[in-house]
Amino acid sequence: MLRYVILLAIAGIVGSIIARRKGRHPIGWFILCAIVPLLIVVIAVLPPLVSKGYTKKCPYCAEIIKKDAMVCKHCGRELPIEMIKVKSKM
Ligand SMILES: [Zn+2]
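# zinc ion complex -> structure
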């Protein structure tokens, strides 16, 4: 029984880490993945969201990239400096 609880807790933590990286709600996904561990697959497949302070949208290709990124990993273009400054103030 205890082993099962630990496994569910690990599933929840993994789910919340993936959710956070994708700009989604980590606590919500922690609970969801702890209840239904299969949801880890769902969050791993879901596309990332634009979330304030963690991700932003590339102005060239409209893909979601990390907030601190200066070069888009999808199209390889350098992001305008104004955009980096404005986003980091928020
Ligand atoms: Zn791009």
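# post-check
Residues 58, 60-61, 63, 72, 74-75, 77 surround zinc ion (CB under 6 Å).
The chain has two domains: 1-48, 50-90.
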